[in-house]
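Listing S7. Sequence submitted for prediction.
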Amino acid sequence: MRKSDITGQPVLKEVFQRDFYIGAALSVEQIYGRESGAMDLVARHFNSITPENIMKWEEIHPEPDRYNFEASDQYVAFGEKHNMHIVGHTLVWFSQTPDWVFQDELGNPLNREALLERMQEHIFTVMGRYKGRIKGWDVVNEAIAKNGSMRQCKWLEIIGDEYVQKAFEYAREADPDAELYYNEFDFEFENKTDGVIRLIENLRNNGIQVDGVGIQGH
């Protein structure tokens, strides 16, 4: 028998429990409990959660030797309390990544190997903290431009096209049991969709397991 909420309406996660997760993206205000009504709604109707910003590099790793896990710890604890499928978002992205990530102590651009080491350390540290607790990760976010080519960014400039593959390799090593996703938007544009398909096919041809592709709707 399906559950109903206080209004007598069906509970979404119960209605679709045999089909798919019902997911919600949580803001930092919600994660810190400042919107209790919203969190009650999430707990009642949803069984998968993704953070909006708290796990992006500038928030969770703002300085070379400093990580900030306070908000992400609360986020994961909420998901565990309500037995949810918890998603980590995102490990490697062209945006909301501090400039220091791509520079040495003197402000000079890193070389390829140094940036790969920095990427690996970040992925191992963040995923390692939540190993076995976060079920899936958006490993790389928005690597394809609207025309279907690789998006121009520091990751591409310094490492080359292989940066996406290396991120997935490091993530698989950090937590072999986690689901690993590629996340993107603008799938309504044919060239971009074709570019994402090429990227995923290339990864798979190189032995990289991609467990899902996120299709953003905002």
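Caption to Listing S7: primary sequence and predicted structure tokens for the chain studied. The mean pLDDT is 96. Strands lie at 23-26, 48-51, 85-93, 136-141, 179-184, 212-215.
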